[in-house]
Design goal:
Strand order of the largest sheet: 7-6-5-3-4-8-9
Structural class: alpha/beta
Number of helices: 17
Helix content: 25-40%
Largest sheet: 7 strands, mixed
Distance between the termini: 45 Å
Shape: globular
Number of strands: 24
Length: 565
């Protein structure tokens, strides 16, 4: 197919990059550890690790895991926020020849149990703040882990770490009591691992690197199987796309990359961890981005060059007086993804910082970037931009035929960054690929005459809350499991802060059921962004002739009467 969008590429961005420069992500790490040994690699809570220190620490992690008899391809889960242990563990697990299973640290026991069972993880590295959740999962007897490694906030912070741990436990009291018999501490693992030798793993491009869990096109959480070659390709594609912005203004020896988006999320993982390693960048890990004063204080400590975020985070930062006083003259690229960037937010951000929010588009299944606006953008476009290098985008109808230019259809993509399928789910994989090998995103878009794309609707019923996917089926399964609920339906409704919020329509089985009771129940079963923000009780729900609940009819009701939300 003709790539008409290539004419719009900024100077210096190639139509295709050589995505076969590396056999694996591990090769990128190994190269960077040698090439940038003395450079700062990661900073968190004022503690900085150089590339050489990350090399040494990740060797210890990998060697320890190998010493426990794990076999090549075994899965190791990581359940932490953005702390130094995260990138160290990622590098160690991959270097040892294993697969990283990224876990949202805010998951409830129900959500964590599913992911551990589905992935078949043999080990987990968990921050002690989340250890009680793991304890609850293991207590069911449905999940068996061979190794549990418990980390603390202060493990890698030197002497200051003792104070951080004391404050977390005794002052802020954010460490729930937990019991995990047989677990080892992260510090003990590191100590033991340093006395062992990491055996180089024979990793091939088609070996699995990450299981990135997502609902895909249905509500059952599935692991997008990302191969080493998929992620390597997207790292190199993103690097090529960034180049025009890096050539403008002051030239810098090392890029400081603000890592506020969670590293368990594929966008932050690819850009802020892996691409950062490839270019010898310095990632500033923000453990709690909701603490806006603390976030602004961290940014004031050094120049910052790249700041990826979602619309809600950009908006939140601008509401902070201290943030608005910062020096933005070094800012080169602000990537917006995960959810639609609002024009008002983009315009105000540009006015404040002089750096545009460059909106892009991608999914967990695509490692993630598929399209992006040019990084030398001068203003808000309201589009998701152009397909990046090596990437084809085709707008298709329900019969998988390409529609006429300007007509809406499903966005379908082909490129080296796209997963081969879902982990051990051939049936679900078959549903998301066309006969000619294009991945069906489930989003409805249009292409203009220049090859620029815009999302106009969502084919699937997914709800997008602050950049996180919420699948109605999962919410409904939880709500209807309450003994007082007869049936329910979950839909997304507009929300000025999060883009969308979850609303559930509920038919009672128990007439005494009230909103507070149902909310409390959801809090035990669903992580924060999945919980219903709005609950509405009804006598019945609209259905088809065969009894299928019509979510679209409920959404239409809301559209006609938004004041009722």
């Amino acid at each position: 197919m003709e790539r008409i969008w290539l004419k719009q590429y900024p100077e210096g961005v190639p139509a295709d990059v050589d995505v076969n420069q590396y056999q694996s992500i591990v090769q990128i790490f190994e190269e960077s550890f040698k090439k940038f040994a003395n450079r700062p690699a990661y900073t968190c809570m004022d503690k900085t690790m150089t590339y050489a220190e990350v090399d040494q620490a990740s060797r210890a992690v990998g060697a320890w895991l190998q010493s426990k008899g794990l076999r090549p391809g075994d899965r190791v889960a990581i359940m932490t926020p953005n702390v130094l242990q995260y990138p160290v563990a990622v590098a160690g697990i991959l270097r040892a020849g294993y697969v990283v299973v990224n876990v949202n640290p805010l998951y409830t026991p129900r959500e964590l149990e599913h992911q551990l069972k589905d992935s078949g993880a043999k080990a987990i590295i968990v921050l002690e703040m989340m250890a009680k959740t793991l304890q609850d999962v293991l207590a069911t007897g449905h999940v068996k882990l061979d190794h549990v490694i418990v980390a603390t906030l202060g493990d890698m912070l030197g002497f200051k770490g003792n104070i951080v741990n004391l404050v977390a436990k005794r002052v802020k009291k954010v460490i729930p009591e937990y019991r995990l018999p047989g677990a080892i501490t992260f510090k003990a693992m590191m100590s033991e691992g340093k006395g062992k030798t990491l055996k180089p793993a024979a990793i091939k491009p088609d070996d699995v690197a990450f299981l990135q869990y997502t609902g895909g096109t249905t509500g059952v959480s599935k692991g997008a199987t990302l191969l080493h070659r998929n992620v390597v390709a997207n790292v190199l594609q993103n690097e090529a796309w960034l180049q025009p912005a890096l050539k403008v203004g002051k030239q810098v020896d090392q890029l400081n990359i603000v890592t506020a988006l969670p590293l368990y999320h594929i966008f932050a993982l690819t850009v802020c961890c892996l691409l950062a390693a490839r270019v010898g960048g310095h990632s500033i890990l923000i453990t709690n981005p909701r603490d806006m004063p603390g976030f602004a204080k961290e940014l004031a400590k050094r120049p910052f060059h790249i700041l990826p975020a979602v619309n809600t985070l950009y908006n939140g930062l601008m509401q902070n007086a201290e943030f608005r006083k910062l020096d933005f003259s070094n800012l080169k690229v602000c990537n917006g993804g995960g959810m639609a960037v609002q024009k008002a937010v983009a315009d105000e951000w540009f006015k404040l910082t002089g750096c545009p929010i460059v909106e892009g588009y991608g999914l967990s299944e695509t490692s993630p970037t598929l399209t992006s606006n040019p990084v030398v953008l001068k203003g808000f476009t309201g589009t998701i931009g152009y397909p990046i290098s090596n990437t084809l985008i085709s707008i298709r109808d329900d019969d998988e035929k390409e529609v006429a230019q300007g007509e809406p259809g499903e966005i379908c993509a082909k490129g080296p960054q796209i997963m081969p399928g879902y982990w051990q789910r051939a049936d679900e994989t078959a549903k998301v690929f066309t006969k000619d090998g294009f991945f069906k995103t489930g989003d409805v878009g249009v292409m203009d005459a220049n090859g620029q794309f815009k999302i106009v609707d969502r084919k699937k019923d997914m709800i997008l809350v602050s950049g996180f996917n919420v699948y109605p089926n999962e919410v409904e399964d939880v709500v209807v499991s309450h003994p007082g609920v007869l049936e329910c339906a979950a839909v997304g409704v507009p929300d000025k802060n999060a883009g969308e919020a979850v609303m559930v329509f509920v038919v009672k089985k128990d007439p005494n059921l009230d909103e507070a009771t149902l909310r409390a129940y959801c809090e035990t079963q669903l992580t924060g962004y999945k919980r219903p923000k709005h609950i509405k009780f009804r006598a019945d729900l609209p259905k088809t002739n065969v009894g299928k609940i019509l979510r679209r009819a409920l959404r239409d009701e809301i559209t006609k009467a938004p004041e009722k939300v």
